Each structure stands twice: as C-alpha cells, then as structure tokens.
C-alpha cells in the first residue's frame, strides 16, 4: 500500500516523502501519480524515508489506553479520551486526512505495533502528560493553564508582572520559527493622508516615540516599523475608504535580519522536537496565539485587546538566538493569507527608497470572499 505527500500537513514528513522521489497512486487520500511512500518498503528498510516508521512509533508512547477497569482514577479525564486517530487529528498537524483514514494509515504504517497492541489503536486513549501535573507546570507555556486564562490574567489582573508564563518554553517555540531576511528584500508602508495632500517621505517611517498608537505588536508610545510585502495589501490594511489619498513608501532591508516567523507557529512539526509531550501539551496554545495574530482588528477594538500580542512581541524583542538579538517579527497579513507583514523593532534596519514614494487615491473597494457569520 502507498500513502503520499498529500496525506500529510507535516512539513518534515512531506519533505521526506518527496525526497524518496517515487510517484504512485495513494491508497488513503486517493491522489493519482503523486510523490508517494511504499509502506512495505518503509517497514522493511530503515533507511527508506529516514526511518519514518521509527518516528511514528514514537508517537505511540505519548498515549495510554483509557481503561477504567484497570485505573478508575482516570475517570476525571473522561472528556479527554478519544481514539488515537482522533487525538492525532485534533492535537497535531501531522495529517491531512479525515480521522477514519488516519486510523487506517496508522494501522498500516505501524503494523508491527498494531499486532502487538490493538487496543491502543481501537480503544479510547488519553495523552500521557495529563497524568503528570508537574510536567504540565514545568513544560506548559502557561504552566498547565490555557491561552484564555493567560489573556484574562494579562488584560485584567497583572499586566506587567504576570507570572503565568514559562517564558523559556514559549521562546523555544519561537526559536523554532526563526528565519533570516536577506539584504535587499523590499517592503511597503502605507498611510492615509488626513488633509488631502500626499504625505512627505520623512513622515513615512515608524511613528515617533511617545506618539505611536497601540498596535498588534506594540504598546502605545512605542514606535515600531510595520511593513508589508505588497503595496496594495498595505493600502487595504490601513482601512482606507473610498476617495482616501494613500501614500505608499517602499523600503529596502539594509542588513540581514533575524526574524521570529509567527506565521509558522502553528505549523511546526512534532517530529522536530525531542520533547514531544511538550509539543502536544502546548499545541492548542500555539494555535490560539496564531489566531490572535490573525484576528482582524475592528476600528472599535480597544487598546486592551492588543495586550496579549504586545506581551508576545516584547518577549521576542528581548530574545537572543545564537547570541544574536531578534530584529523583528514576521506574520500573516490580517487581510490576505498569502501576504506576509513584518514589524521591525529598530526602524533603521530598513532604508526608505526616497525616489519610490507614490500616492494613490482609492477609487473602488471590492469585497471578495465574504463569509457568513450568523
Ligand atoms: Zn495520499
């Protein structure tokens, strides 16, 4: 039987399947003539796909069978018990398959383990870390608490000295997303003119200290330079309306930059971490962080709504990766999934191209991909 690169979301597994360089038809997602993995070869040859079976077998250690006859104390975890395939479907981004197909694929890939212990595949299981409060306290980003309780704490209880976060754990995940931005990369910044005249170039940099309004990644008073990959998205992001005059400045990155790429924070592969329990217990938090970054800010959004992401930004600003400071954050544009924005803590890391200042008037606004919410 064969599975294929389309059966997976996991970046690491997809790459390994592509590297085998064999094409075929998939028995699970039914893609035709795609990069595929021959499961029999994978079981019989450790070198095939870098011992992919070994890595999947490792996942089995993360779960135990939920059996109230053997351990009645587990009853309090009743709501957390699901079949193995459902656990992996809900709490990892490994698969791009419905859970019944994941179940079939697991039984094939892990055939040896399936024969040894069918219960693990067919009965309800729970993640093992739930039985270890200390582990959750030490390795959970919020010491075993949720993203929502962190939001509540930092917004309404303890803004500057919240002790809820295991900062070193959160930084480990940030570090795993680090990317470098090459010299010469080009970005845009747009502003709406408030007097009907084009804005001069000198006013197109970061908002001056003390004057900057609160943003997704800066508290009010702190002026960071927000840039966007595309000029049209930059104009849309500033919520320009019909007939507004918008000036767009183009910037060039002047030295190689180190960025934490939050657009990758919920796409990290479980297989890249030695501590897989730490990944599992924090998976939902990383997804909530991602959501919080993408949530479109409405004009009515109050300053307090930005506090959780400002906290994240501050933490990143003071991180060191291989002895080097982080220059900024890369993230997905809130209005276009395909576009990346960056925020630079030091605006001098980008040079404005004075000759390329352009002013546009918004003549038409098109609404596409409207999503019904009620
Ligand atoms: Zn497939």
UniProtKB/TrEMBL annotation:
<protein>
    <submittedName>
        <fullName>RES family NAD+ phosphorylase</fullName>
    </submittedName>
</protein>
<dbReference type="Pfam" id="PF08808">
    <property type="entry name" value="RES"/>
</dbReference>
<dbReference type="InterPro" id="IPR014914">
    <property type="entry name" value="RES_dom"/>
</dbReference>
<feature type="domain" description="RES">
    <location>
        <begin position="210"/>
        <end position="350"/>
    </location>
</feature>
